[in-house]
Amino acid sequence: MSRDRHIAAKQRWAEKQKARGVRPRPVASPDRLPPGQKLTGGFPVLDLGVQPDIPIGEWTLTLDGLVENPAVLSWARFGALPQVEDVSDFHCVTTWSKFDCRWGGVAFTTLYELARPRPEARHVFFTGYDGYSTNVPLERCLDDDTLVATSLNGAPLPLEHGGRARVIIPKLYAWKGAKFVKAITFLAEDKLGFWEVRGYSNTADPWTEDRYA
Ligand SMILES: Nc1nc2c(c(=O)[nH]1)N[C@H]1C(S)=C(S)[C@@H](COP(=O)(O)O)O[C@H]1N2
Ligand SMILES: [Mo]
Question: Is the CB of 186 under 6 A from ligand 1?
C-alpha cells in the first residue's frame, strides 16, 4: 500500500480513538494489516448457503438503473471487454485478512464507461445470483482497484469464491464485494444491501474498524 494511504489510515484511526477518549491499542502490522484483523494463509468461504452454478450460456451481467446505455452482457461480451489484473489484500469483517490476492477481470470503470450513468447516479447497488446484495458509493467503485473478477491467481474464479464473477473492492470490508454478481444498478439515492440492513456498517472501512453501524 502507498505510504500516503497508510498515513491517512493511521490518522483516521487515531482521530476515532481520540473521539472515544481511549488509547489506541497495538496493531499487529501497522503498515499492512488493519486493526483487529488476523492474517490467514487459507481462504475461508462465506456465503448464504447457496453457490449458484450458472451455465456459461445462461450467465449474464446486467448494468441498469440511471444509465444512458443499459446492458445485459453475455459471458462472451463480458470476456471481450478489456481485461485487467490487480493484486490486493482481502479483509473480512469477521477479522481474517488474506494478503496478495491476484484478481483478473474487468475494471469497474470499464463497465461505468459502457453503461454511461447519468449525473444523478451517486450510488451503486450490486445483486448476486444467490439473492445477496450490497451497496457502495459510486465514487468508491471508481477507484482503480475495483473490478468484477473472473479469475483468481491466474485460474478461473472458483465457484465457492463467487464464480463466475464477483466484485472486488479492496479498500472496503469484503462483504461490500458481491460474489456471483448478476446486476449492477446505478441509483441516485442510497439503498442498503443484505448485511447493511442487518446492522453492518454502511461505510465499511477496515482501517477504522468500521464494522457495524
Ligand atoms: N453473493 C454473495 N456475495 C458475498 C457474500 C455472500 O454471502 N453472497 N458474502 C460476503 C462476505 S461477508 C465476504 S467476507 C466475502 C467472502 O468471500 P469468500 O467466500 O471468497 O471468502 O464475500 C462477500 N460477498
Ligand atoms: Mo464477511
Answer: no
CA-closest residue to ligand 1 atom 18? 45
Which grid cell sits at 168?
A: 472486488
> Which residue has a Cα nearest atom 20 of ligand 1?
161
> In the prediction, which pLDDT does 6 show?
45
Q: Whose CA is nearest to atom 16 of ligand 1?
A: 46
Atom of ligand 1 nearest to the CA of 128: 1
- Low-confidence stretches of the chain (pLDDT beneath 70): 1-30
**Domain count along the chain:** 1
Amino acid at the residue 53: D
Ligand 1 centroid, distance to 170 Cα (angstroms): 13
The distance of Cα 62 from the centroid of its chain, to the nearest Å, equals 17
Instruction: State residue 31's pLDDT score.
Output: 79
Does the reported pTM lie above 0.90? no
SS3 156: strand
Cα 94 to Cα 76: distance, rounded to the nearest angstrom? 36
CATH number assigned to the domain comprising residue 104: 3.90.420.10
Q: Whole domain around residue 102: which residue ranges?
A: 3-208
